[in-house]
Amino acid sequence: MDSAREHPTETTAQEPRIVVVDPTERTPSDRSMVELLRAIGTETATLVRKEAELARQEMIQAVTARLMAAGAAAAAGLMGLFVLAFLALAAAAALDNVMRPWASRLIVAGGFMLIAAAAGLVTLRKIKRPPMKPEETVRTVREDVEWAKAQLKR
Asked: Reduced to 3 states, what is the DSSP secondary structure of residue 61?
């Protein structure tokens, strides 16, 4: 094995480093007030555009989710109507053997009313999710405002 690898020599002095500085490149402390204000204006405009785009995307997602839920509810409702119609006919015919025909129809109609109420409650729960308020955008805008205030206090 190589003896230099086994016992590295210790050096206390650091090797000198060469730093190349471009004289045309300016550090943030060298920028003029006009340049700083121009940069803040440009960055603020970009930030506002990005926040508006985020809000638009969140709203599109919320509306799309609701439209998909509405389409699924419509399809389920249509099929459910066919099932309920045949079940209602069968139930009414079965109850005709026990009571007068008009009473059996009232009982079947009451059953329909209970089913409609349950479907309405399920629909209300689905419509409330996801929220229509663009929560992510509101949160990021608040963070941006706090950041901007902190930058102005410097």
From this structure: helix
Q: In the Cβ-directed half-sphere of 37, how many Cα atoms lie within 13 Å? A: 3
Q: Helix %, strand %, coil % for the chain, to 5? A: 75, 0, 25
d(CA 47, CA 42): 9
Q: Which helix (H) or strand (E) holds 69?
A: helix 33-96
Whole-model pTM: value is: 0.41
Task: State how far the Cα of 112 lies from the Cα of 108, in Å rounded to an integer.
Answer: 6
Going by the DSSP 8-state scheme, the letter that residue 92 receives in this structure is H
Q: Kindly report, residue by residue over 26-50, the tens digit of the pLDDT.
A: 555 667 888 888 888 888 888 888 8
